[in-house]
Amino acid sequence: MDSQHTRRGALALGIGLAGALAGCLGASSGSSEPPGSSEPPGSSEPPESSASPTPSTTADDAAGPPAADRSPYMAYEASRLRDATVSGGVPKDGIPSIDEPSFLGTSAAALDDREIVFGVVRGDDVRAYPQRILVHHEIVNDRLDGVPVSVTYCPLTGTVLGFERGATTFGVSGTLVNSNLVMYDRATDSRWPQVLATAIEGSLEGRSLREFEVVWTTWGRWRRRHPDTEVLSEDTGYARNYGVDPYGSYTPTVRGYYDRESTMFDPLATDDRLGTKAVVVGARTAAGAAAVSMERLRARGVVDAGLGDDRIAFVHDAALDAGHAYRVPPGVTVESTTDAVRVDGERHAPDALPFERRHAVEAMWFAWAGFYPETTLDA
């Protein structure tokens, strides 16, 4: 597979291979055998029609995570997704979330500039979560700008998303759908596929989470943009070798899961418009889903997509090598320049356009196309 199509292969530090799988398919500490995979039941063909979830109203509402004001598009009924849910080979909480995170300043962070980090800015809080730590835990229950949140990462789908969690915390259920992490909240035990941000099982079925954007970038890029950032410490309370990624590496010189075309589990649907693990930046509205390949976005700077009556502009942030998404009014000109984005001729930073933000989700193509088989794609 061409290294341009793998997730930032040329940017990341090679970490090496391990015998045991962790992350979304993780093995608990001390295990040396990879858990077996099983095929999710159900057809790999797209559904005949889309379904819009209806938020639940139950006595668990106060204890569970807060609900989003609007639910994102879902292509499948919850029952279909439950039928397609499979074991990831570990029990519930077999991959332990980090519930009491600690942080370091930049001078104390022993990170190479090429290492992948997941960056968040909320209010006055600026934090980086190293991929090499989250690959062993998948969920960090944190507090940002005074708000309880969870930063979540699924290695099998290459997706990182942030959610408000309210008075509860999220944990790793040990199951997957479309190869994607299925979280559970510890207040109601409802089940939440990470990419969908919507419960498919439990008393909160149909409820969608409040999301916030998490940026996939490298330590050097993030540190230069945010020199006062805090960094998640390896002092997690768990004995893990954070220098080893059980899936391989994002560097093209080390082979592993990220580099191979094959997946460990069958996707909900297949789409050959891109390579299986090509990186896309996706956005969803109530009307549907749209995506652009990262390769295309890097080359163009700005890519427009139509979703029903909405116009979505994907914008490349060259300093972070990340994508943002905005809902843009008709008739407005959005153009990329060498160091900024111009809106009707006025200069703006790529992460600060004067429009409504849509949550940009970077993902492996097979995962995005599996969850959203009718997605538009600019490749």
From TrEMBL:
Any Pfam family matching the protein: DUF3179
Listed InterPro entries: DUF3179
Top-level taxon of the source organism: Archaea
Bias-annotated ranges (Low complexity): 24-69
Region (Disordered): 24-70
Protein name: DUF3179 domain-containing protein
Native species: Haloplanus salinus
